[in-house]
Design goal:
Length: 333
């Protein structure tokens, strides 16, 4: 019996009956020889961590564009916080932690530079539309060809939007993503002086907690208690309603119309300019993207792929190279 088979056997002994078992995976788009040491979901997690898209998350905006300071979240730190919250819930409910972690680490691989401002910019110009969850699936399927299991792919594309993931582990990510961003965005907004902790309505501070840790604990415990009671992923109705009230508070006081978002329109204009330029000059696309068109991919989709893969810093660099005049000196005889 291989190490992997021993782990799969332990899953059968230790996980809850409604968990997703590695030895019952629906498989991959292309068959692969099983790893003797890792389950299929552990292998997916490792493939995601070693991908180029995962590394780029460290230089992509979470919410605040070009903040001054070392402690504001980037897309990568958001991803790690989602994974931590999701694993806590999965472990408490005896669900598959490896599958949960793989989905969490891959859920935002398709996000644009400059956060949701970048996503909105590409959605406005691309004739096919643009959604970061769909782009995350395209990232693992096409652009990096990670050949992940169907369970991980389903969890990635269903982490946001109306369609629920097929697995309970995938449905955890839908909640863990919100728990993470609501709370760490409060932390960053307080650090940036946009709000004070006492600006949060008092009834929400009483019901959810008056600190970062207490709020997360309240929401995570609500998920665990709901899962233990119903063998399904959800949250006590009152806690969920209060969480959504807190989310609305963030939209009203942080996400929309604040000084921290004052650069959003410039970022959108920049990405739209890059899109228009490369649609008109496809021969200047890097070779890895240009070759996609030879395989039948539409030009507009490939340009979106290229821009979505950019980090904040790289997109600014490309924009400067294309649109900002360079200084020069007279050549002396």
């Amino acid at each position: 019996m291989t190490v992997r088979e021993q782990q799969e056997q332990r899953e059968r002994q230790m996980l809850a009956p409604w968990a997703t078992f590695a030895d019952s995976s629906a498989g991959r788009l292309r068959d692969m020889e099983p790893c003797p040491y890792r389950t299929c979901f552990q292998r997916d997690r490792d493939r995601i961590i070693h991908s180029k898209a995962f590394r780029r998350l460290s230089n992509k905006t979470q919410v605040f564009i070009s903040p001054e300071g070392d402690h504001y979240r980037a897309r990568l730190t958001h991803t790690l916080e989602v994974a931590q919250i999701a694993r806590t819930v999965a472990r408490a409910l005896r669900l598959n932690e490896d599958l949960t972690e793989a989905i969490a680490l891959g859920h935002d691989l398709g996000h644009t530079p400059f956060g949701h401002a970048g996503e909105r910019a590409l959605a406005e110009v691309c004739p096919f539309g643009f959604r970061h969850n769909e782009q995350s699936l395209r990232m693992v399927d096409v652009l990096e060809d990670l050949n992940l299991t169907r369970e991980v792919r389903d969890g990635i594309v269903c982490h946001t939007g109306a369609k629920k993931a097929d697995t309970p582990e995938g449905r955890i990510i839908h909640y863990a993503d919100r728990i993470a961003y609501i709370n760490h965005d409060i932390d960053d907004a307080v650090r940036g002086g946009l709000i004070k902790a006492t600006d949060i309505p008092q009834y929400l501070r009483r019901s959810l907690g008056d600190t970062h840790g207490k709020r997360i604990d309240t929401m995570v415990v609500a998920m665990i208690e709901y899962g233990n009671k119903y063998q399904e992923i959800g949250m006590d109705e009152q806690v969920h309603d209060d969480m959504m009230e807190l989310r609305q508070f963030m939209f009203d006081h942080v996400y929309q119309g604040t000084e921290a978002q004052s650069e959003e329109q410039r970022a959108k204009n920049m990405l739209r300019s890059l899109y228009e330029y490369f649609v008109e000059h496809p021969d200047e696309l890097p070779g890895d993207y240009f070759v996609l068109m030879t395989h039948g991919e539409p030009l507009e989709r490939v340009v979106c792929d290229y821009i979505a893969c950019m980090t904040d810093r790289y997109s600014i660099s490309v924009y400067k190279k294309l649109f900002i005049p360079k200084s020069w000196n007279k050549i002396e005889d």
